[in-house]
Specification:
mainly alpha, 4 domains, five-stranded mixed sheet, 7 strands
Length: 567
């Protein structure tokens, strides 16, 4: 049985199980309901990724995929836990990425100071040096958290401004420290420090390839933070301060001490992450290390159920949020493959917006839904979301559904824009929304299937029209093979390109005649790319055209069964 069939059955099973358990999910508390929803979403994304990934890596290479996913998830979860504690307490920490870069640089800098010759010659620095560097780095992390708390509680800066200052400043400071220390200790200023000690690198499993040490570390941190927030008075104070700081202060809670604890936990975990990232990459580069990771940490905690208004959130939810975020990013990378990192920021941003939107209660959403699209601004928002859906489908659609649909980016963008517009109009109407939503889903699927079925016919008709417009002919043999005859007409490479983009929709193009045309080797390359997968083209007559012997040889190597005439 084909893997796609197996995965399709799995997806159907997951959906059926979700439908059966929906009544139970609704009966649970909001936090548990959110976590169960995340678990279902993670399984759904995993199934969809396996289904649309042409190599089915989650099945064919499940061990390597699992190791990579665990490594990425544990590193993200580590800093997301710190962001979650701060958000629960009513604050925000924008400095996680810079603290990681600064901590990693400080750890590497201490190794240079304590063992300059070993670092310069890529030799082991010794266990004592490693322990000293790690200890100093963790102390620096606590000092950064204390600085944040002082700026917020004593100076009176908003958490956004206080952590924004260190977001900008720590990365520059770490670069200056690296350059000056390497200039003094290694005889030349460097922008990064390379650490080759195998014992240090094995802290992250970089040498052996294992992830169990990272998994155990994150599990221990998760349990400790869960016990702190759920089972201690301190945890209740953090929740109370995040829910209403003024009321917490009046009730006798030491809010300054609680803020110090929250920001120290966040910076301390970021410092651990900085050490592990340098261990994994074997280089401390303050310019690029963990750039933008603060958004990923906040996104994971918010997706996991933390409210940016404070007072809400759980450690298990944050862990699931980190896993969901990494599963989505990894899924897009496996489906799109080349250039998938270009869309990572877009994916994270969209997930954050949706997570913040749906952390509202269902009652609040239903009562405010119509207000979301009311008035002139509502119509402009409908237009914005429609255009956004079309643009995203035009950019990602052909890669995400490659091998499943035959439509090009333009058609996919039009379908996405039309379906999004109709859905938004249904939400704006606020009457029979559920029934109309079901009708919309069925109509969208039916329309997409019908258009996908008609698309090849339209393209074949356009190919015939294009050939006839140039003065050529398209004939069909008794065996169903198509002969495209462009003999003696002024057909350039650009004309051939337009024809070939549509000829691929014919099930069998047997012969292509380019006798006495203006086609060159560029046209031969396009022919090779068009028929490289199908290999339906059997004969090509390019006599009297502008092709060269080298171009013909290249085409024959690409299409070994093709008969080429070029006399």
């Amino acid at each position: 049985m084909d893997w796609s069939v197996i995965v399709t059955l799995v997806v159907m099973g997951v959906l059926c199980a979700g439908a059966i358990g929906w009544r139970h999910v609704l009966a649970t508390g909001s936090a548990h309901r959110h976590q169960l929803g995340l678990v279902a979403a993670i399984f759904f994304v995993l199934c969809c990724t396996t289904l649309f990934d042409e190599h089915h890596n989650y099945v064919a290479k499940w061990d390597a995929s699992l190791i990579d996913l665990l490594r990425q998830t544990t590193m993200l979860a580590l800093i997301a836990f710190g962001a979650a504690v701060v958000i629960i307490s009513g604050g925000i920490d924008l400095s996680a990425g810079s603290v990681i870069a600064f901590s990693g640089s400080i750890c590497a800098t201490f190794m240079v100071l304590l063992a300059p010759d070993a670092v310069n010659q890529s030799l082991p620095v010794g266990t004592g040096v490693i322990v000293t560097a790690i200890t100093a780095t963790l102390i620096v992390g606590l000092l950064i958290g204390s600085l944040h708390a002082w700026l917020i509680t004593e100076v009176g800066l908003p958490p956004f401004v206080a952590t924004l200052g260190t977001l900008v400043g720590l990365r520059s400071l770490s670069r200056a420290i690296v350059e000056n220390v390497t200039q003094a200790m290694l005889g030349g200023a460097r922008t990064q420090i390379n650490i080759a000690d195998k014992s240090f690198r094995e802290l992250s499993g970089a040498i052996s390839g294992t992830v169990w040490n990272l998994t155990i570390l994150v599990a221990v941190v998760a349990v400790m933070l869960w016990l702190l927030l759920s089972k201690t008075v301190t945890g209740r104070h953090l929740y109370a301060m995040g829910g209403n700081e003024q009321a917490a202060l009046l009730s006798g809670i030491q809010t300054k001490r609680m803020k110090w604890l929250a920001y120290c936990i966040s910076s301390f975990l970021s410092a651990i992450a900085g050490i592990l990232y340098v261990s994994q990459l074997s280089v401390a580069d303050p310019q690029t290390l963990a750039r933008g990771y603060e958004l990923n940490a906040i996104a994971a905690s918010v997706v996991g159920g933390c409210s940016l208004q404070g007072g809400l959130g759980t450690i298990p939810g944050t862990l699931l949020g980190a896993l969901f975020l990494r599963v989505v990013i990894d899924g897009v990378a496996k489906i799109i493959k080349t250039g998938a990192d270009v869309y990572e920021g877009l994916i994270v941003g969209v997930l954050v917006v949706f997570a913040v939107t749906f952390t509202k209660s269902s009652d609040a959403l239903s009562t405010s839904r119509r207000k979301l699209f009311s008035g002139g601004l509502g119509w402009v928002t409908v237009l914005n979301l429609t255009l956004l859906a079309g643009v995203m489908m035009a950019l990602l659609g052909t890669r995400l559904v490659r091998g499943w649909v035959q439509m090009d980016a333009v058609w996919l963008a039009l379908i996405a824009a039309a379906s999004t517009l109709s859905l938004l109009l249904i939400l704006k109407s606020d009457t029979n929304t559920h029934r109309r939503g079901i009708i919309w889903a069925l109509a969208t699927i039916a329309a997409a299937a019908a258009l996908n079925d008609q698309y090849p016919k339209v393209q074949r008709g356009a190919a015939v029209a294009e050939v006839q417009k140039l003065g050529g002919t398209v004939t069909q043999q008794d065996d169903g093979g198509i002969i495209v005859d462009l003999e003696g007409i002024r057909c350039l490479d650009v004309d051939l390109k337009r024809i070939l983009s549509r000829l691929k929709f014919f099930p069998h193009v047997a012969e292509l005649r380019l006798i006495n045309t203006k086609v060159t080797d560029v046209g031969l390359d396009m022919i090779g790319k068009t028929f490289q997968e199908s290999h339906t083209l059997r004969r090509l007559d390019a006599s009297g055209s502008g092709v060269s012997p080298g171009g013909i040889q290249k085409l024959r190597r690409l299409l070994s069964e093709l008969e080429v005439v070029a006399e």
